Amino acid sequence: MYPKNFLLTSNINFTCNWFIGYLKVFLFNLMGFEEKVWGNFLYIIPSVDILNMKCVKLVQGKPGTGLNVSSDPIKVAKMWEEKGAKILHVVDLDAAIYDSKKSRKIVREILRKVNIPVEVGGGIRSVEEAVSLVEDGASWVILGTKAIENPDFVGRVVEKTDSKNVIVALDSRKKVVLRGWKTETEISPFDFAKRFEAYNIASILFTDVEVEGTLKGVNLENVSRLVNSTSIPITYSGGISSIQDILKLLNVGLRGVVVGRALYDGCFSLEEAMEAVRGAERKG
Questions:
Q1: Which positions are catalytic?
Q2: Which CATH architecture has domain 6-24+38-283?
């Protein structure tokens, strides 16, 4: 039997978590970080990918490839915060690939434990799930398969949260891929991006699946083409292997870059990347 104050306490907790998540986004927007063009500034966003309740980094999204980073994703998330990350990118691969919710509790624990804005993706296929994650403190929810198959889904999530809480993922292997990158389509990311402009969403997350987790570098032409094809701010992920790759992206006009394997493999540190960007920005 539940204690008398159970429902009241639960509602208070939900309200507090939602308010904290909203406050993070409000402060982020207040400081001007959600503008389409940030001059020469670029945010370096560490990724925490969770599979089988562990932090991993896969090659091209394929289970069984890449490396096991840590058995404690929460500790990894806190580490990036301590190292100065301004945003964190968390993906529930169990939900994205297998439609399993076993790692969701870890995602929610990360939202409770870190004090920086977090964007959360992976298997968000209902409005209720998106709303629940925002209530638990996610600053942004990343909508993938469901948004591509039914763009109106984005509008329904926006109605229940806020347009600035929503990111749409365009994962591309020349054409858009879905369902944890397992299903190929004939959809061009450059044409499809325009469909979401009416919703005034925070960003499109563009992942070049062909180079994701490979450390093979960036296809700058594709990134530039997408940025120029839509008014929606673009975040990029895939293939980054060096600070030079990041500096190449600096003048494209991105919202940020998500970096995973290069950081975990020690190709460069988060501090080095952030300082390189700051240095380039100072030089103008």
A1: 49, 171
A2: Alpha-Beta Barrel (3.20)
